[in-house]
Design brief:
heterodimer, A: about 120 residues, mainly alpha, 2 domains, about 75% helix, B: about 210 residues, Four Helix Bundle (Hemerythrin (Met), subunit A), about 0% strand
Chain lengths: ~120, ~210
Protein backbone atom coordinates (compact mmCIF):
# COMPACT_ATOMS: atom_id res chain seq x y z
CA UNK A 1 0.00 0.00 0.00
CA UNK A 2 2.73 2.41 1.02
CA UNK A 3 4.88 1.52 -1.99
CA UNK A 4 1.85 2.07 -4.19
CA UNK A 5 1.33 5.54 -2.72
CA UNK A 6 4.93 6.66 -3.23
CA UNK A 7 4.72 5.42 -6.81
CA UNK A 8 1.62 7.55 -7.36
CA UNK A 9 3.42 10.55 -5.86
CA UNK A 10 6.34 10.15 -8.23
CA UNK A 11 3.93 10.17 -11.15
CA UNK A 12 1.92 13.03 -9.70
CA UNK A 13 4.38 15.66 -10.87
CA UNK A 14 4.64 14.46 -14.43
CA UNK A 15 7.21 13.01 -16.76
CA UNK A 16 9.14 14.78 -19.50
CA UNK A 17 6.94 13.09 -22.09
CA UNK A 18 3.67 14.25 -20.54
CA UNK A 19 5.02 17.83 -20.29
CA UNK A 20 6.10 17.84 -23.94
CA UNK A 21 2.85 16.27 -25.11
CA UNK A 22 0.86 18.82 -23.10
CA UNK A 23 2.99 21.64 -24.52
CA UNK A 24 2.51 20.49 -28.15
CA UNK A 25 -1.25 20.16 -27.64
CA UNK A 26 -1.53 23.60 -26.07
CA UNK A 27 0.56 25.22 -28.85
CA UNK A 28 -1.93 23.86 -31.41
CA UNK A 29 -4.91 24.79 -29.22
CA UNK A 30 -3.55 28.35 -28.87
CA UNK A 31 -2.45 28.85 -32.49
CA UNK A 32 -5.74 27.69 -34.06
CA UNK A 33 -8.08 30.18 -32.29
CA UNK A 34 -5.67 33.10 -32.92
CA UNK A 35 -5.44 32.06 -36.58
CA UNK A 36 -9.24 31.78 -36.84
CA UNK A 37 -9.81 35.25 -35.43
CA UNK A 38 -6.86 37.08 -37.02
CA UNK A 39 -7.41 35.79 -40.57
CA UNK A 40 -11.20 35.54 -40.37
CA UNK A 41 -10.95 32.08 -41.93
CA UNK A 42 -14.61 31.43 -41.09
CA UNK A 43 -16.83 34.28 -42.27
CA UNK A 44 -19.58 33.64 -39.71
CA UNK A 45 -18.65 35.36 -36.43
CA UNK A 46 -20.90 33.15 -34.29
CA UNK A 47 -19.28 29.94 -35.60
CA UNK A 48 -15.79 31.40 -35.03
CA UNK A 49 -16.74 32.44 -31.48
CA UNK A 50 -18.18 29.00 -30.67
CA UNK A 51 -15.04 27.26 -32.02
CA UNK A 52 -12.74 29.58 -30.06
CA UNK A 53 -14.63 28.86 -26.82
CA UNK A 54 -14.57 25.08 -27.40
CA UNK A 55 -10.80 25.19 -28.10
CA UNK A 56 -10.26 27.22 -24.90
CA UNK A 57 -12.16 24.67 -22.81
CA UNK A 58 -10.14 21.82 -24.34
CA UNK A 59 -6.90 23.73 -23.68
CA UNK A 60 -7.86 24.36 -20.04
CA UNK A 61 -8.42 20.61 -19.65
CA UNK A 62 -5.08 19.84 -21.34
CA UNK A 63 -3.26 22.21 -18.94
CA UNK A 64 -5.13 20.70 -15.98
CA UNK A 65 -4.10 17.15 -16.87
CA UNK A 66 -0.58 17.61 -18.26
CA UNK A 67 0.72 20.63 -16.29
CA UNK A 68 -1.31 20.69 -13.07
CA UNK A 69 -1.38 16.86 -12.93
CA UNK A 70 -4.94 16.67 -11.65
CA UNK A 71 -6.01 13.02 -11.72
CA UNK A 72 -8.11 10.68 -9.59
CA UNK A 73 -5.01 9.36 -7.78
CA UNK A 74 -3.21 12.57 -6.75
CA UNK A 75 -3.76 13.45 -3.04
CA UNK A 76 -6.28 10.62 -2.72
CA UNK A 77 -8.55 12.22 -5.31
CA UNK A 78 -9.09 15.43 -3.32
CA UNK A 79 -7.44 17.75 -5.85
CA UNK A 80 -9.80 16.42 -8.51
CA UNK A 81 -12.76 16.80 -6.15
CA UNK A 82 -11.83 20.41 -5.29
CA UNK A 83 -11.23 21.14 -8.98
CA UNK A 84 -14.64 19.78 -10.02
CA UNK A 85 -16.36 21.70 -7.23
CA UNK A 86 -14.58 24.92 -8.25
CA UNK A 87 -15.49 24.35 -11.89
CA UNK A 88 -19.18 24.14 -10.90
CA UNK A 89 -18.90 27.37 -8.87
CA UNK A 90 -17.07 29.16 -11.70
CA UNK A 91 -19.73 28.15 -14.23
CA UNK A 92 -22.56 29.24 -11.89
CA UNK A 93 -20.82 32.53 -11.07
CA UNK A 94 -20.01 33.53 -14.67
CA UNK A 95 -22.98 31.91 -16.43
CA UNK A 96 -25.46 33.04 -13.79
CA UNK A 97 -24.21 36.65 -13.82
CA UNK A 98 -24.36 36.90 -17.61
CA UNK A 99 -27.80 35.27 -17.73
CA UNK A 100 -29.36 37.47 -15.04
CA UNK A 101 -27.81 40.72 -16.25
CA UNK A 102 -28.80 39.97 -19.86
CA UNK A 103 -32.45 39.56 -18.88
CA UNK A 104 -32.25 42.61 -16.64
CA UNK A 105 -31.09 44.64 -19.64
CA UNK A 106 -33.91 43.24 -21.78
CA UNK A 107 -36.48 44.22 -19.16
CA UNK A 108 -35.22 47.79 -18.77
CA UNK A 109 -37.41 50.68 -19.91
CA UNK A 110 -36.97 51.50 -23.60
CA UNK A 111 -34.29 54.15 -23.98
CA UNK A 112 -34.50 57.42 -25.86
CA UNK A 113 -32.56 58.76 -28.86
CA UNK A 114 -29.63 60.48 -27.16
CA UNK A 115 -29.00 57.53 -24.88
CA UNK A 116 -29.31 55.17 -27.84
CA UNK A 117 -26.32 56.80 -29.54
CA UNK A 118 -24.15 55.69 -26.62
CA UNK A 119 -25.18 52.05 -27.01
CA UNK A 120 -22.95 49.62 -28.92
CA UNK B 1 -20.53 -2.12 22.73
CA UNK B 2 -17.85 -4.38 21.42
CA UNK B 3 -18.81 -3.41 17.85
CA UNK B 4 -18.18 0.24 18.67
CA UNK B 5 -14.70 -0.54 19.97
CA UNK B 6 -13.95 -2.48 16.81
CA UNK B 7 -15.15 0.39 14.63
CA UNK B 8 -13.01 2.81 16.58
CA UNK B 9 -9.84 0.78 16.18
CA UNK B 10 -10.52 0.35 12.45
CA UNK B 11 -10.96 4.09 12.14
CA UNK B 12 -7.60 4.80 13.78
CA UNK B 13 -5.86 2.29 11.56
CA UNK B 14 -7.16 4.06 8.46
CA UNK B 15 -6.09 7.38 9.91
CA UNK B 16 -2.53 6.20 10.45
CA UNK B 17 -2.38 4.91 6.92
CA UNK B 18 -3.58 8.25 5.59
CA UNK B 19 -0.78 9.94 7.55
CA UNK B 20 1.75 7.65 5.92
CA UNK B 21 0.42 8.63 2.49
CA UNK B 22 0.88 12.32 3.19
CA UNK B 23 4.25 12.78 4.85
CA UNK B 24 4.18 16.43 3.68
CA UNK B 25 1.22 17.05 6.00
CA UNK B 26 -1.21 18.13 3.30
CA UNK B 27 0.66 21.29 2.24
CA UNK B 28 0.20 20.57 -1.45
CA UNK B 29 -3.52 19.92 -1.05
CA UNK B 30 -3.87 23.05 1.08
CA UNK B 31 -2.10 25.13 -1.55
CA UNK B 32 -4.33 23.59 -4.21
CA UNK B 33 -7.41 24.70 -2.28
CA UNK B 34 -5.95 28.23 -2.09
CA UNK B 35 -5.56 28.13 -5.89
CA UNK B 36 -9.18 27.05 -6.26
CA UNK B 37 -10.28 30.02 -4.12
CA UNK B 38 -8.10 32.23 -6.32
CA UNK B 39 -9.96 30.78 -9.31
CA UNK B 40 -13.17 32.05 -7.74
CA UNK B 41 -11.70 35.57 -7.48
CA UNK B 42 -10.96 35.41 -11.19
CA UNK B 43 -14.45 33.99 -11.86
CA UNK B 44 -16.03 37.07 -10.26
CA UNK B 45 -13.73 39.35 -12.27
CA UNK B 46 -14.60 37.48 -15.48
CA UNK B 47 -18.31 37.75 -14.64
CA UNK B 48 -17.94 41.49 -14.00
CA UNK B 49 -16.11 41.93 -17.29
CA UNK B 50 -18.71 39.81 -19.12
CA UNK B 51 -21.56 41.95 -17.81
CA UNK B 52 -19.79 45.27 -18.50
CA UNK B 53 -18.06 44.31 -21.78
CA UNK B 54 -20.44 46.45 -23.89
CA UNK B 55 -20.77 49.37 -21.44
CA UNK B 56 -18.61 51.72 -23.54
CA UNK B 57 -20.08 55.05 -22.31
CA UNK B 58 -19.34 56.45 -25.76
CA UNK B 59 -15.66 55.43 -25.48
CA UNK B 60 -13.59 53.02 -27.56
CA UNK B 61 -14.59 49.36 -28.07
CA UNK B 62 -12.55 46.16 -28.04
CA UNK B 63 -12.16 46.34 -31.83
CA UNK B 64 -10.75 49.87 -31.60
CA UNK B 65 -8.22 49.00 -28.91
CA UNK B 66 -6.96 45.42 -28.97
CA UNK B 67 -3.89 44.46 -30.98
CA UNK B 68 -4.01 40.69 -31.41
CA UNK B 69 -0.36 40.25 -32.56
CA UNK B 70 0.77 41.68 -29.21
CA UNK B 71 -1.63 39.38 -27.33
CA UNK B 72 -0.41 36.40 -29.40
CA UNK B 73 3.18 37.28 -28.46
CA UNK B 74 2.29 37.46 -24.75
CA UNK B 75 0.35 34.20 -24.94
CA UNK B 76 3.35 32.49 -26.55
CA UNK B 77 5.70 33.86 -23.87
CA UNK B 78 3.51 32.56 -21.04
CA UNK B 79 3.01 29.18 -22.72
CA UNK B 80 6.77 28.71 -23.19
CA UNK B 81 7.32 29.73 -19.55
CA UNK B 82 5.00 26.87 -18.55
CA UNK B 83 7.15 24.28 -20.29
CA UNK B 84 10.39 25.81 -18.94
CA UNK B 85 8.96 25.54 -15.41
CA UNK B 86 8.15 21.92 -16.28
CA UNK B 87 11.82 21.43 -17.19
CA UNK B 88 12.80 22.90 -13.80
CA UNK B 89 10.58 20.31 -12.12
CA UNK B 90 12.12 17.53 -14.23
CA UNK B 91 15.62 18.66 -13.23
CA UNK B 92 14.48 18.76 -9.59
CA UNK B 93 13.20 15.18 -9.80
CA UNK B 94 16.58 14.13 -11.23
CA UNK B 95 18.24 15.90 -8.29
CA UNK B 96 20.06 18.35 -10.54
CA UNK B 97 20.41 21.63 -8.63
CA UNK B 98 22.11 23.50 -11.48
CA UNK B 99 19.46 22.52 -14.03
CA UNK B 100 16.64 23.46 -11.64
CA UNK B 101 18.13 26.92 -11.05
CA UNK B 102 18.82 27.47 -14.76
CA UNK B 103 15.24 26.65 -15.82
CA UNK B 104 13.83 28.74 -12.95
CA UNK B 105 15.87 31.72 -14.17
CA UNK B 106 14.61 31.17 -17.75
CA UNK B 107 11.02 30.98 -16.43
CA UNK B 108 11.44 34.17 -14.41
CA UNK B 109 12.87 36.01 -17.46
CA UNK B 110 9.91 34.88 -19.58
CA UNK B 111 7.56 36.01 -16.79
CA UNK B 112 9.25 39.42 -16.78
CA UNK B 113 8.89 39.63 -20.57
CA UNK B 114 5.18 38.85 -20.18
CA UNK B 115 4.66 41.56 -17.56
CA UNK B 116 6.77 43.95 -19.66
CA UNK B 117 4.63 43.43 -22.78
CA UNK B 118 1.48 43.81 -20.69
CA UNK B 119 2.71 47.08 -19.17
CA UNK B 120 3.62 48.29 -22.68
CA UNK B 121 0.06 47.45 -23.80
CA UNK B 122 -1.45 49.26 -20.81
CA UNK B 123 0.82 52.24 -21.51
CA UNK B 124 -0.31 52.38 -25.15
CA UNK B 125 -3.97 52.17 -24.14
CA UNK B 126 -3.63 54.93 -21.55
CA UNK B 127 -1.72 57.11 -24.04
CA UNK B 128 -4.63 56.65 -26.46
CA UNK B 129 -6.96 57.93 -23.76
CA UNK B 130 -8.41 54.49 -22.94
CA UNK B 131 -7.91 54.71 -19.18
CA UNK B 132 -9.80 52.73 -16.52
CA UNK B 133 -11.86 55.89 -15.87
CA UNK B 134 -13.11 56.02 -19.49
CA UNK B 135 -15.87 53.42 -19.28
CA UNK B 136 -17.16 50.50 -17.25
CA UNK B 137 -15.79 48.21 -19.97
CA UNK B 138 -12.26 49.57 -19.50
CA UNK B 139 -12.54 49.53 -15.67
CA UNK B 140 -13.46 45.84 -15.80
CA UNK B 141 -10.78 45.15 -18.44
CA UNK B 142 -7.94 46.75 -16.48
CA UNK B 143 -9.07 45.10 -13.22
CA UNK B 144 -9.20 41.61 -14.71
CA UNK B 145 -6.01 41.74 -16.78
CA UNK B 146 -3.99 43.64 -14.14
CA UNK B 147 -5.03 41.18 -11.41
CA UNK B 148 -3.61 38.40 -13.56
CA UNK B 149 -0.48 40.46 -14.24
CA UNK B 150 -0.08 41.09 -10.51
CA UNK B 151 -0.25 37.34 -9.86
CA UNK B 152 2.48 36.77 -12.45
CA UNK B 153 4.59 39.47 -10.76
CA UNK B 154 4.18 37.72 -7.40
CA UNK B 155 5.16 34.46 -9.11
CA UNK B 156 8.37 36.08 -10.39
CA UNK B 157 9.20 37.35 -6.88
CA UNK B 158 8.53 33.83 -5.54
CA UNK B 159 10.92 32.36 -8.14
CA UNK B 160 13.53 34.88 -6.95
CA UNK B 161 13.01 33.78 -3.34
CA UNK B 162 13.32 30.11 -4.35
CA UNK B 163 16.56 30.83 -6.23
CA UNK B 164 18.02 32.31 -3.02
CA UNK B 165 16.78 29.35 -0.94
CA UNK B 166 18.15 26.85 -3.46
CA UNK B 167 21.47 28.70 -3.39
CA UNK B 168 21.62 28.52 0.40
CA UNK B 169 20.23 25.05 1.11
CA UNK B 170 19.96 23.11 -2.12
CA UNK B 171 17.22 20.66 -3.09
CA UNK B 172 16.15 19.52 0.38
CA UNK B 173 12.60 18.14 0.80
CA UNK B 174 11.12 21.44 2.05
CA UNK B 175 12.46 23.30 -0.97
CA UNK B 176 11.15 20.58 -3.28
CA UNK B 177 7.71 21.00 -1.74
CA UNK B 178 7.89 24.78 -2.16
CA UNK B 179 8.86 24.33 -5.81
CA UNK B 180 5.87 22.02 -6.31
CA UNK B 181 3.54 24.68 -4.87
CA UNK B 182 5.12 27.31 -7.11
CA UNK B 183 4.70 24.92 -10.06
CA UNK B 184 0.97 24.69 -9.39
CA UNK B 185 0.78 28.49 -8.99
CA UNK B 186 2.61 29.15 -12.26
CA UNK B 187 0.61 26.64 -14.32
CA UNK B 188 -2.61 27.90 -12.75
CA UNK B 189 -1.81 31.43 -13.98
CA UNK B 190 -1.40 30.05 -17.48
CA UNK B 191 -4.86 28.45 -17.22
CA UNK B 192 -6.35 31.81 -16.18
CA UNK B 193 -4.59 33.45 -19.14
CA UNK B 194 -6.37 31.01 -21.50
CA UNK B 195 -9.61 32.50 -20.20
CA UNK B 196 -8.29 36.05 -20.64
CA UNK B 197 -7.05 35.72 -24.21
CA UNK B 198 -10.15 33.79 -25.26
CA UNK B 199 -12.98 35.69 -23.59
CA UNK B 200 -11.48 39.18 -23.44
CA UNK B 201 -9.28 39.49 -26.51
CA UNK B 202 -10.39 36.96 -29.14
CA UNK B 203 -14.14 37.12 -28.51
CA UNK B 204 -13.91 40.90 -28.08
CA UNK B 205 -12.49 41.27 -31.57
CA UNK B 206 -14.78 38.66 -33.21
CA UNK B 207 -18.04 40.21 -32.10
Amino acid sequence: MSADASHANANAHGSRRSYLLGFLLSVVLTAVPFWLVMTGAIADAATTAALVVVLAIVQILVHTVFFLHVNPRAEGGWTLMAYAFTAVLVVICIGGSLWIMHHLNLNMMPITGTEMSNQP
Amino acid sequence: MSTTTLDQSTFYLVDEEAEAHHPEGGTLLGFWIYLMSDALIFATLFATYGVLATAYAGGPTQRDLFELPLVALNTAILLVSSITYGFAMMAMQDGKLGGTRLWLVVTALLGMAFVGVELYEFGTLIAEGATPQTSAFLSAFFTLVATHGLHVTVGIIWIGVMLVQLGQRGLHPENQQRLMCLSMFWHFLDVVWIGVFTFVYLLGVVQ
